[in-house]
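Kindly inspect this chain:
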Amino acid sequence: MFAIDGYLAVDITVNGQPAPIDMGNLMYLYMAENYLQTAATVDMAVKDVTGNFNNVFFDGAPITIAMGKLEVGPPLAKMPYRVVKKPNQPPVASGSGIRILAGYDAFKYLRDVPRKGYRGTVYEVLQQLSSELGLNGVSGEQTNDSQVWLPGMKSYALFMRDLVSHSRVDDTSLMLHCLSGAGVIMFANITKKLKDEAPVAIFSNHGKEGSIAIRDFTRIEDSGVYNLYKNYGAMEWSESLSGTPSDLLEVSVPKTAASLPVNSELYDGIQRVWTQFSALDCGNVNDTYYKAAYQNARMAGLLSVGVDVLIDRYTSLDIFDVVEISLMKAETQAIDKAMTQKYIIMGRTRAIQGTKYYEKLTCRAMGHGT
């Protein structure tokens, strides 16, 4: 075990034994998790001063990284991984450099294929899958989409992604999921959280009272790309055995920001950009199965306004937590009202670089503050 900045304890074990890693030979450690990743990952580089690290970090070796504040004491939050690759690393001044890439230790989830159907809502099925896979539960809410769900020869990970894409609470829900670095299936109604939940933390670059200081940030504006692909003129067409066709043209978006990232002139002027054809409805899925997939895809495209923030302190924030970000324009020393608002955390990278600890938070909103 070693300490970072005098307050953060880090303990790394490999194959059940303390790893020969400390501040003297650790070059960097990055631990990333976000809703687009299938599972959390680790990228680590160390100086191999003994020439023995290749034997320690062998292919498939189990690695456990525990992290937490020294004043809190044990037990630290433990995150299990497995070595998946050791890319070449340039030599360093004292010995060779070894780079280790690892993935969250859930290979049944990543590779195995379930061979049965699951009855219930998506939330209930996720709970069944968590128990079956030995994960650490589900954080989320009940959904309105009960049926028998068939894996279709997909891996657990792909089956779970397919499940969530067809999940639904109501006409305004946007359902997303992520397997966190702690092994919890984070399952969230994004629109509800942005609309109704109070921020659990505040970040600012101008010393706002009670806020965590932002050391660096990047504004994100992807609305043009997402709208052309997902929103302007998007249509889904399906037919059923009853002979009654249906089409999906609109979604009901709750107001979670002052303005949507959509150009009304283009939206009204474009009749159709793309048409997606659903599978034939044979009556063996719930009534909103196809609508849920269309709704989730289009509304996810509205998460195109964001800020990537860098802080230099440890937090216990989770994926899909709601935070407030307050930004000041450097050139005018005025609050940037368009970017100052509530956001939802979509990704987090914990980083140790040299003797410092950092967190990069990927935060998104469905529009601007003004």
Helices lie at 53-56, 107-111, 122-133, 156-165, 190-196, 223-231, 264-269, 289-300. Residues 122-133 form the longest helix (12 residues).
